[in-house]
Write a structure and sequence with these properties.
Helix content: 25-40%
Number of domains: 1
Number of strands: 9
CATH superfamily: Formyl transferase, N-terminal domain
CATH class: Alpha Beta
Order of helices and strands: EHEHEHEHEHEEHEE
Strand content: 15-25%
CATH architecture: 3-Layer(aba) Sandwich
Mean pLDDT: 97
Bound molecules: glycinamide ribonucleotide
Number of helices: 6
CATH topology: Rossmann fold
């Protein structure tokens, strides 16, 4: 198989993971998802991986210290030695050691226009609640490199959606998620094509 090897980390439904798998299967991007790892034994992303014949593993964090859990993750990641690690709805915050080890090859998708509406506690529906409360007329999604400041790493690419006056958290989340499914595989494709640059804390796509 040609292309870059990607490992995806997810904790939930895995629709973002699915968007990458679909793009790989359709040959839209020169990448393969080598492994899915989840920390949640009940996550639907496991079913998705199984259905697509993708190697997957469950590394439950419960009962382990943050570092113990990360050591197990590192062991699995290092077996594959991926070109890219994608956090796709992975609901864990990493230690500085872990982030440093994979700096430059680990990216995250966030359901808002960073640097707004990011940081600890800003995940899932909390983000959309905050956007609706703010009165902002646009929201969107961001893909960024992971650094030790939660959600604040160099931004690689973003997409916008309108916020409508009668939006609920669900309607806004759905509109943003649709864009996530376009943006995330596109960014993985940029990596596959060697178009992503990172220098002095800034990222850009050539
Ligand atoms: C996505 O909206 C993703 O942006 C968000 O979790 C959802 C996962 O959906 N991530 C965060 O909030 C991280 N701060 P999925 O499980 O269907 O891919």
């Amino acid at each position: 198989m040609s292309g870059i090897d990607v490992v995806v980390l997810a904790s939930g439904s895995g629709s973002d993971f699915q968007s990458i798998v679909d793009a790989c299967e359709a040959d839209e991007i020169d990448a393969n998802v080598a492994l899915l790892i989840t920390n949640n034994p009940d996550a639907y992303c496991i079913t998705r991986a199984r259905e697509h014949g993708i190697q997957h593993g469950v590394l439950d964090h419960r009962g382990l210290s943050r570092r113990e859990h990360e050591k197990k993750l590192e062991k699995e990641l290092d077996k594959i030695d991926p070109d890219l690690i994608v956090l796709a709805g992975f609901m864990r915050i990493f230690t500085d050691d872990f982030v440093e080890k994979y700096y430059g090859k680990m990216i995250n998708i966030h359901p808002a226009l960073l640097p707004l509406f990011g940081g600890p506690g800003m995940y899932g529906e909390h983000v959309h609640h905050a956007v609706l409360d703010s009165g902002m007329k646009v929201s969107g999604c961001s893909v960024h490199f992971v650094t030790n400041e939660v959600d604040m790493g160099p931004i690689i690419a973003q997409r916008c959606v309108p916020v409508k006056h009668d939006d609920s958290v669900d309607t806004l989340a759905g509109r943003v998620l649709e864009e996530e499914h376009k943006l995330l595989p596109k960014v993985v494709g940029y990596f596959a094509d060697g178009r992503v640059n990172l220098e002095d804390g800034k990222a850009w796509v050539e």
